[in-house]
Every structure is written in structure tokens, then in C-alpha cells.
Amino acid sequence: MTRKPPTVPAALEPEFVAELKQIFEERIVFNRVLGIRVDHLGPDGVRAEIAMRRDLIGHYAYNRLHGGVISAGLDAMAGLAVMAAIGARHMDEPPAQRLQRFARLGTIDLRIDYLRPAKPRSGITAEAHCYKLTRSIAFVRAQAWDESADDPVATAQAAFMLTGAPA
Amino acid sequence: MTRKPPTVPAALEPEFVAELKQIFEERIVFNRVLGIRVDHLGPDGVRAEIAMRRDLIGHYAYNRLHGGVISAGLDAMAGLAVMAAIGARHMDEPPAQRLQRFARLGTIDLRIDYLRPAKPRSGITAEAHCYKLTRSIAFVRAQAWDESADDPVATAQAAFMLTGAPA
Amino acid sequence: MTRKPPTVPAALEPEFVAELKQIFEERIVFNRVLGIRVDHLGPDGVRAEIAMRRDLIGHYAYNRLHGGVISAGLDAMAGLAVMAAIGARHMDEPPAQRLQRFARLGTIDLRIDYLRPAKPRSGITAEAHCYKLTRSIAFVRAQAWDESADDPVATAQAAFMLTGAPA
Amino acid sequence: MTRKPPTVPAALEPEFVAELKQIFEERIVFNRVLGIRVDHLGPDGVRAEIAMRRDLIGHYAYNRLHGGVISAGLDAMAGLAVMAAIGARHMDEPPAQRLQRFARLGTIDLRIDYLRPAKPRSGITAEAHCYKLTRSIAFVRAQAWDESADDPVATAQAAFMLTGAPA
Fold first, then answer.
1. What's the whole-number mean pLDDT along residues A127-155?
2. How far is CA B33 from the centre of its chain?
């Protein structure tokens, strides 16, 4: 089977990466509640960890991660992947200008497939990459796993508007 | 246009309702983080409120609810709607026995359409109803709004397995 | 449960309805292959019939409708519902001008839930309504049934761009 | 970014491949209407061509493929990918026995993202692979393109029940 090769745009500047990471982890308040820590942010995609905590459990008796943590985490990561792709496309703009595009980004829809229950020992990893970016719209694929990327607990697809949320 | 009339099964016993509400609000830990309070739980569907808090904001500068709060909230409410439907179908079983079915409920997938940004003054309301329940599978439709049910911020559809999460 | 009341815009002019129906049924060639006949086209939604034919069967041994007929039919009806909604919003424009908007309509995504196998005796009915229309985007809900609207075989949700397909 | 390596099960026997291909192309009548020709059918996925024909056009003035052809084609290919995966898992069963599993396969849901309009010169190619197969459920990812696999016109995700359609 032919597989789509990853597009390879320019690398992002450390300055842009650091600022976007900071906005994402700290100023988007609910991401702090989830405890998302970004460990990769590049034109090829983004990856983050959510450390397991008692707060994030579904039913107390089962120690399974709440499905909503996965849906919220993949939702957040999908948006970050679009920002990384936008950042790579507009390298001619200063970082601060590109970062303002974040405010105009609106999710159109998100679909999550839950492949199996997540029973993480230490946490989950989520990664997302924007595989289609036009002037007005972006499509993202994402996945999350507990032990191995080869055995994901959930996969997701999302579509975004770049020109402001629907109004 | 013909609209599907709501199916009208028997009402749920107060005992079942109280116990399910308590499990949902308290023992599913992440629901406490979201602050979901159920105000209707019947065979016709479920409804809950999530009070606005600073924790639930997306970007600090915009006061918009984080998309992940909506996705996590609709995810949780969709599961509760299936439990209400199961509860109504198995009225011959004692409440405790029906409640154990919760543990075998697994989300297959969830799709959320974000119709517009949520800028709630006091909070959001989410409702869900299970419109198809077979022995092995359930389909749910849900929506969330900030000011009026006539102008939702998001709608969702979800499918569930009743026989244990995929394994 | 509070239910969203249907929005009630002005009725569409017979001239617009006749022309849109003709484009949809005749000039969109694949719709002729499916054999879709529109029997309602209004601001409140659209409804059509697909008569059962041997061509539309899935596996020969089971007489079930091919899932692809349902997905293609719901896809087509969802687009028609957006056109009806656009037609109702721009009553100040002459019909011919409104009909040209059809060419700029692009599907962003479509999700179909298959509730049960379709074993139609005479055919299936599909209806769709556009429940959110902004300047740039539209959201549609649709369903199909064989015997009764109360027992659909499939439900669908779709999102559309009004400003040309993504490019 | 870590990418999931393709699982590499045993190859399928020519006998099974030939029989499944024949059922899919000939006995599933609507697939003949679409004109799907399978050119790869293996444990790693399936691929087929739909040759362009006037019948498959959307609006006559634009020569774009009808979105319903893409949705129906991806729907069909997703099911075939599950059958290929089932075929590879049960190599201990005679081909005829494995093929009977086809009748019990039911689509739960299908989501299609339309990345751009399809304006094929000669036709479209669709490929699908089943990336998760349990005893009761299967998840599939699929895509279609006109000129190059690196620039798809649509991507899809689907979930299937293996134990009979919901009833």
C-alpha cells in the first residue's frame, strides 16, 4: 500500500515553539487542569504527555482514564497541530503575528474512535498532525496511547476553520 | 417534515435515579473536575449543567469555554443517556443490578460539531438522549448550549457497545 | 427535554423549487443513477424517495440495500437541504442567482450512523434539514428509513462550506 | 513523530482473494454500478479503481465526481478491508467458511472528510486498511485520490460490527 510521505516544511524557530508551548500549557487554563505537557512541536506534528492522576479517572472502581480526558486532550492537541502547521507556513511573519492566528482558529468538528479502554500506569501520550491546510480550512489526524504508539487507545480526526469560528 | 416522536417508556424509579446520579457526579472523578450537575435523568433523556469557572476557559484573553470541556461534557452525558435508556429497559431487574451494566458500557465513537464559540455567562447546559438501543449497541444524540436550547453551541452523536469495551 | 423548535422562514417560490428539483434530479447525473425523486423541498427541510431496484442491492443473497446507496443518498440530500436553506435566506435575490450558489457549495464532512440493515420492500425515504447556516458554513442532519420515519435505518450529520470547496 | 508500523500478518491465499474479489465486484450489485475494480487485496489493506464515467458526475457543468460516488466507494472499500483482515486472522478456516463472515459484517458508522473537489481525468483510486480488529468490532481508515496518493480528495474512518448488524 502506498503511504503518504510526511510533508517536510522548514523547522519552526525555537522562539515560536517556546511561546506557543507556553500559551498552550499555561494560558489555556483548562489545559492546565488536564496537565498537558508538550514534548514535540514541529511542522511534522505535535506530541504531548498527560500524566496519570486520580482526578482523571472515570469510575473509581476501574482505574480507567475518563473518556472525556481523552476527548478533551485530543481536541486540544488537534488545535495545536493546526497552529504548528500555520506557524510553518508563514515563516515570513514574525512569531508574534503568527501566534495571533490562534485566536481565529475554530474547530468545526471532531471525531474520536475509542479503540480500547485506557488503563495507563504513568499517563497517556497524544500526538496530532495537520495533513491538509488550505487558506480557510485544516484537517487533522490524532491518536493517543498508554503503553505503545503501535497500540493506540483512541484515534481522532478534526476539521478547523482558520478564519474565525462559525458566526 | 415528519419528526420522530420521542419513545415513551416507563419512568425510572427515584431510587435508581438517585444512585445513578450519585455515581455519575461523585464517583466518576473527572466529572467532579468538570463540575457536572445532573438536573434531569429519565427514559426520555438526560440533562445537566456545568457552571462556568475560570478553570474551564480556553485562551485567557477571550473568556471562551475550552472546546475540550464541551467534548468531555458531551462524552460524559452521552454515556449517562445510555445508562438511563438501559435503566428504563430493564425495570424488572433491581436497581443495583442495572447499575452494574455501567461498567460494561464502552464508547465506540463520538462526533462533535461545534456550531459557534461558547461564551457562557453562567454556564452551559448539555442534554443527551439515546435514540436507538439494541442488545449490543446504542446510539445517542446530544447538544450543549449557553443561553438557549434553540441556539446550541455544539451537537454530538455517539455510538456505544453494551457488552464491554472493544478488547 | 426541551426540543429545538423548527425555524420557520418564508416559503420558497414554486419557480425556485421546480428549478432546484430539476437540477438535482436530472443534471446531477449520479442522482439519476440512484433514482432520487424529491417530494418535499422547503425552508424546513427536504425529503426524497429512492425506489428499490435490483441495482441497489448489496449482497445478492440478502436483498439488503447496499450501504453505499444510503451514504450517497444522504450525502446528496444533505447538500440539497443546504440549498433549500440558502434559497430561503436570500429571497431578495432572483432564483437564478440563488441557484448559482450551488456551484460554490462544498461538503467538508459527512458522518453516517447505520442503525440497522435496510430491507426495503418498495424503497427508502430520506430527509434532511439544515439546522445551522452562517455566511461561511452550514450544518445538516439527515435520516433515512424503509418502513417508518420512527424507525430509521440510518442517521447522518454533515458540514458544508458555502464559499467554495476547500482549495 | 512515531508512526504506527503496518502489522504484517500472513499473506492471503490466491483462492480466497479470487473468491472475495469476485463476490465484491460482481455479486454486490451496486459495486458493479460504481464500477469498482479491486487491484490489491491483502492483509495490509485493499485498493481499487473506479474508472471515470459520465454517470458518476455531480453537476453536469463542472465535471466533478459526485460526492456520493466517493462516499459509496469508500463505504464499500472499508467493508472489504475488514473482510481482508478477517481473512488473514482465520487462515485456519477454509476460505468458504471465512467468506460467510461477510454476511454478518455490519457497518456501525462511517465518517468522510472531503479534502478538495475530485476532478479525475481517468478515475479515482481508493484504499482502505483495517487498523484494529477485535472479536466484535473493527476500525478502518480509508482514502481516495484522483492523481496522487499524496494528495487525497477524501479520507474516511469507519467502525464495523462483526457479529451481525445491530438488531
1. 93
2. 16
Q: For residue C42, what is the nearest residue in chain B, using CA coordinates? A: B1
The band of D61, judged by pLDDT with boundaries at 50, 70 and 90, is: low
Altogether, the residues listed in chain C come to a count of 167
Using the Cβ of C30 and the Cβ atoms of chain D, whether some distance falls under 8 Å is answered with yes
| Interatomic CA distance for residues D64 and C102, integer angstroms | 13
Residue among D108, D149, D147 nearest D127 (CA): D149
Q: Which residue has the cell 469510575?
A: A59
According to DSSP, residue D103 is labeled G
CB burial of D130-157 (b: ≥16 within 10 Å; e: otherwise) equals bbbbeebbbbbbbbbbbeebeebbbbbb
Contact C81, C142 (CB under 8 A): yes
Q: Cα(A42)–Cα(C16) distance, rounded to whole angstroms?
A: 50
* The three grid cell numbers given for residue A5, joined into one nine-digit string: 510521505
Per-residue CA distances from C80 to B21, B108, C47, C83 (Å): 42, 30, 9, 5
Encode B47-62 in three state secondary structure. Answer: EEEEECCHHHECECCC
Interatomic CA distance for residues B59 and A103, integer angstroms: 8
Whole-angstrom CA distances from C75 to B120, C34, C36, D54, D141 are: 33, 12, 12, 19, 19
d(CA A154, CA B69): 18
Of B159, B74, B65, nearest in space to B121 by CA: B65
Report the C-alpha gap between C162 and C6 in whole angstroms.
Answer: 22
Cβ-contact A64, B30 below 8 angstroms: no
What is the rounded end-to-end Cα distance, in angstroms, of chain D?
41
Element (H, E) at A36: strand A36-42
Nearest-CB residue to C72 (from D59, D68, D111): D68
C67 inside 8 A of chain D by CB: yes
- A10-13 long-range contacts, CB within 8 A, separation 24+: A10/A43, A10/A88, A10/A91, A11/A42, A11/A43, A12/A41, A12/A42, A12/A43, A12/A84, A12/A87, A12/A88, A13/A91, A13/A95
Query: Would you say the ipTM is above 0.85?
Result: yes
DSSP class per residue in B104-140: G-EEEEEEEEE-S----SSEEEEEEEEEEE-SSEEEE
Query: Would you give the DSSP letter of residue A63?
Result: T
Q: How far is CA D115 from the centre of its chain?
A: 18
CB pair distance less than 8 Å for A152 and D1: no
pTM of the entire structure?
0.84
**Which cell is A10 given?**
522548514
Whether the CB of C116 is below 8 Å from some CB of chain D: the reply is yes
pLDDT in tens, A7-65: 445 689 999 999 999 999 998 889 999 999 999 999 999 999 999 988 888 876 677 88
Interface membership of C136 toward A (CB under 8 Å): yes
Residue whose C-alpha is closest to residue B120's, from B148, B96, B92: B148
Give the CA count within 13 Å in the CB-facing half-sphere of D67: 28
Which pLDDT value is given to residue D164? 63
